[in-house]
Structures are given as structure tokens and as C-alpha cells.
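Box S1 | Example of a co-folding query
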Amino acid sequence: MSAPIDRPEDGTPTLELRGVNKSFGAIQVLHDVHMKVYPGQVTALVGDNGAGKSTLIKSIAGIHAIDSGEFLFEGKPVTVSGPREAAALGIEIVYQDLALADNLDVVQNMFLGRERKNGILLDETSMEEAARDTLSKLSVRTLKSVRQLVSSLSGGQRQTVAIAKAVLWESKLVVLDEPTAALGVAQTRQVLDLVRRLADTGHAVVFISHNMVDVFEVSDRIAALYLGRMAADVPISQVDRPQVIELITAGRSGDLGIAPAEAAAVEV
Amino acid sequence: MSSTLSTPTSAQEPGGAPSGFEADRGTDSLGGTVRAYLDRVRGGDLGALPAILGIVVLGLLFFVLRPETFLTPRNMANLADQAAPIIILAMGLVFILLLGEIDLSAGVVSGVCAAVMAKLLADAGAPWYVSVLAAIVTGVVIGLFTGSLVGMVGIPSFVVTLALFLGWQGFTLRLIGEGGTVPVRDPVISAISDKNVPVALGWVLALLTIAVYAALQLNRFRVQKARGLAHAPLAVVLVRIGVIAAVVVLVTAVLSVDRAPAVGVVLAGVPYAIPLVVLLLLLLTFVLGRTSFGRHVYAVGGNAEAARRAGINVTRIRVAVFVIGSTLAAISGIVAAARLGSVAPGSGGGNTLLYAVGAAVIGGTSLFGGRGRVRDAVLGGLVVAIIANGLGLLGTEAYLNFIITGGVLLLAASVDALARRRAAATGH
Ligand SMILES: Nc1ncnc2c1ncn2[C@@H]1O[C@H](COP(=O)(O)OP(=O)(O)OP(=O)(O)O)[C@@H](O)[C@H]1O
Ligand SMILES: [Mg+2]
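Box S1 (continued) | Returned holo structure for adenosine-5'-triphosphate
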């Protein structure tokens, strides 16, 4: 049920972007971007360096305000003007640099900024229980203790904690920016399993990666950005690896991709 | 379930058991605690051990060198008085150091606040509580000012507080006048230093402290065990309670012995400075360890960007730690003024700040931010005070005192830096 197979996309996408434009000063980074992310699916967001992947997810997170375009969450138009609003909608982003505090333990990091309290006292008991619960649900088995300092964790374990942190918050959409970039073979395996499990527990997942093996292994859909334009946003079964690479490097492949005229316009 | 789902995590972390969280299930005992401590040491956190070693070694050293005078009840009471202002100032610095910031003006701020109090007492004839309140409010306002310059304007704290180090000294000089001193003779304020808790009450407080501490520790252990949370083994909890109980009883016993220099009069009991320090220790430890504010202080010190993304108002935390630092500086200034019986333009200058920073760092607070506890100020403050006190008994000249205290601070800072480097090198 969870293998990357072609599934009918008849449900409402958790996130839908329509015609999103974003410029930094004179430089337009995102051009008329359309994208759909479905619940229970992993959508791979691919593109060359500088294609605009991080900019796109920062727009989703409310860190960058978009210049124009529509942003639909579960079918309803919304405006997200800050990380807090994104979080309130159920959007959680795991950034490339993870942003964990090394001097705090796993539980403390997972609840950072949203601590549970009993009056003015921190409710350590319930936080520790909830953290362990979430980690168990995600079948994370590699942590010795949830009270371990993050400074003592391996790269894969840190990624795991960052992802679990995102899941703790009844999130509906989880965005992962290159979660396997700095990991070895074994740890990449763990994180990919975790990404798959996120989708299988009903989350809509956006997974950014430069590694085509990883992308084809866990994804249900693929969205390819080419110089800030969405070259394709299709079920993964409709493309193969050479096609995706063409989409990434040239913006089109066969009848997929941005129109030749447009592509030519981009080249110059 | 598909193969992707049910595939067990194929690669275990070294030492990881398939079920996970094995250290949390309470099956491991003392060995686990020792391992956890070694883990922390490798992570750059030596804990209280160096400071405790320092206290023991220096205590033995001065006891051997001055067996008649050093370990006497009278000198111990004196040591407590000497240590109190250093410890209180250092407690405030712990908050600031936790963010990786520094307050070079903390010492002279204690002088400004003490001067405000002394002037109100002596010149305006204000009652003690008004003067003390004014001193503390002065501390709060100064902290808001420093904190705003650092947190909102964005000037490095080193520069801001270096400028204020000069500026506030000028302010105190203007307030008191060149060569002047303002006496502090209010009986209530002087009592902090020269009056003692009645012996019986002292024992009641001591036993109460032990009982409350033991109850809290045991209750926490019980809850953690019952709900299957990570917890220290019972033996460790009991040892902790035992050590605290022994220290409290020992200190109370020594200070309950009559230490009057002449026969006929009785001078016994715990100096009021001690319960004051203990009260601040409990209060601030609670703030740092049990409230979300404290948690956010650690987070900002550990990774300000992570804290910001977690929705923590980093600027507010920056300003707040400087307010806490200056408020404690004010209290330290009041205690120092009570001890000396006067405030002079140089109050809080000289080595006051160096001693307090030294105390925090020797106690185990990192200069790089993110690591430190309020108790560090107490343990490190005792080390610094023992050095000053012992060298005083030896009758060494002032220059040696400076050199030795400076050397100890340098040693502590090196340990801090090396621990940090080691932590970075081992990928922690
Ligand atoms: N804050 C900014 N101001 C100006 N230009 C920016 C800003 N952020 C990104 N850009 C530009 O936008 C373009 C897209 O950058 P982005 O970081 O989104 O790429 P990316 O697809 O995430 O690349 P990578 O794979 O290297 O992470 C780049 O040309 C970059 O220089
Ligand atoms: Mg990027």
C-alpha cells in the first residue's frame, strides 16, 4: 500500500500552489510555479543548485512573502505570513541545517518554543512521554535515551530527531530539505525509511534531494524545478530517471517540461 | 504493510539495541550514570567536579599552612561573608555567559546601585527598604539599558559593557564625590553581614532545607520510575541527598559553635548572608531549570538560529539576561556595602568583576555560551573566596593575590576551551 505506485490523485491536495512568483529585488527566482502535494504521498522536489527549491519551501513556510500567486491549504486559499502561521496550519519544515540546540536533550529540542507547562512549571513528564511516543510511532530505534544531549547524536540521529520534532505537532505537511545530504549509506537508509513512514502515517511530505536513487525509492510524485519554473509535477510512474535528469538540466523532456519557446526565452 | 514499511531499520547505530531507549528503562544502574557522566565530559561538560576538587585541595592546602586560623568557625563565617557578594554577582553573570555574552560592567554596576542605596540612607534618611528597593530598581533599569544596546541595537556586549564599565564608574564618582565615602550604618542592612541566624532557628532551617530537598528528589524519582521516564538510579538520588544533607549539617554545625574572640560574649549562628545566597540559588535554579524562560535561555545560548525558528523571541531573552545580571549585581553591591560598612567611588571596581567571572567559569559555566548552572557561581565563588581568604591569612602581599586569582581564572578558561575543542573534535 505504501510502495511508490501510481495512485489516483482524486483527493484534495494538502497543499496547492498556483502561479507563484517570487523576486529578490530585480532577480526573479520563482516564475509562475504550480505544485500539488497530496496527503499520504511523498512528493520529491528536485532541481539543480539555485533552481529555487529552498526559496519555494521558505515561501511555503512563510519566511519569504510571495509576490503573487495563490496558496491553497486543504483546498482553502490561505496567506501565510510567518513561521507561526505556517505551524498553526500544520506545516512543519525541517531545514537543511536542522536547527537543533546541541546543548539541549532530545525532548527539550522536540518541544523547543512550544513547551508544555503546568502553571509556570515545565511539564517534563508529559513532554518526555509524548516525545518517546512520537519516536516509537516512527519506529525510531536507534536512540539510547530521549534525555541524551543532541551533541552526542550522530548525523542520522539528529535528522531523525528533527523529523520527529516536525511530526510531534499534528502536522499535515512536512517539508524536508535535503535530509540525506550529509549522511552515509546506513543512516540514509534510516532516514529514507522514516520519510516513507511519515507518508504512510498520512502526512503530505515534500522531500528535496539531489540523489535520484533516493528520489525514485521513496517518492510518489516528482516536481522538477528548472531555473525557477516548474518543469513537471507528475506521478513518479510517468517518468524515468533519464527523463527526470533531462527535466532538471534542460527544463524539458519529450512532451514534458516548459514549452520550447519559454525554455528558449529562459536560456537567453 | 509493504516491504518499505516493515523493513526493520537495517543499520543500527553502534551500541544501539533494536528496541531503542534502553537507557531510559531504568534497567541500568550506577554504571549507566557513570557512562552518562563520561558522555557529558566528552561533550565538554565537566560538571561540578573541578570546582569541588578546587575547594577540597585549596581547603587542605590552607589548613596545612595555617592550621590555627584557617578552618576555625570564625574564619569560616568570615569566608561566607567574603564569598557572598562574589557568588551573587557571579549568579547574574551565569545568565549572561549562558548566551555567550559578557557583562564587563557588572562589578561597577554593583557599585552604582550600592551608592544609590547609601546616598538614600545617609543623605535622604530614607528607610532601609526604600533604599534597597531603589538600588534594585537602579539595577533593573541599568540592565534594561545594557540589554537594549546589545539585544536591540546589536552592539557586541563586550563593547557595550566596556564603555559602561567606564561610564558607570564616573557616575558613582559623581554621586559620592572624589575621595569621599558614604557610610552604611542601617542596622537591618548591616545585619546581612554582622548578624547571625539564631542557632536554634539555623538548625530548623537547615533540617527543613534537607527535608524539602530530599522530598523533591525522591518524589521526582518516584514519578519518573512509575511513568517509565528516564531517571537516575535510586543509589545516585540517595547519594545526592546524602551529600547535600552532610554539607548543610556540617556548615550549620561549624557556624553554630561560639566563635566570639573574648570570653563572656557569645557569637554563634549562620551569618544571614548564607540563607540569602541559598534563597537566590534555589530561586534562580528554579527559573533556569524548571521554566520555559530558562529553557529558552539555554536554547538561545546553544543555537540562537534554532531558537529563533522555534518562535522564541531571542531579543527579549537577550535583554532579560542583562536585566537579571544587573539586578543581581545590585544585590551583590548591597551585600558588599553591608560587609564593608560604606560605599566608596571605587566600590565594585578593581577585581570585583574578575572574581565573579572567574567564579562562574571555575564553577563550570562556559564562556562560549549554552552551558552553565546557578550552582556554578556558588562553587566557583567559594574557590575564589578561599584563595583570597587563605592568602590573606598567609599574609601574602596583594600582588600575589592578583597573580594567583588571575592564574586560576586562566586555568578554568583553558579547561573550558579545551573541553569545547575536544567536543568539536570528537564530532559532539
Ligand atoms: N535572500 C535572497 N536574496 C537574493 N537572492 C536569493 C536569496 N535567496 C536565494 N536567492 C537566489 O535564488 C536562487 C534560488 O536559490 P535557492 O536557494 O532557492 O536554490 P536551491 O534550489 O535551494 O539550490 P540548492 O540545491 O543549492 O540548495 C539562487 O540564484 C539564489 O542566489
Ligand atoms: Mg537549497
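Residues A 53-54 surround magnesium ion (ligand 2) (CB under 6 Å). The beta strands of chain B are 182-183, 342-343.
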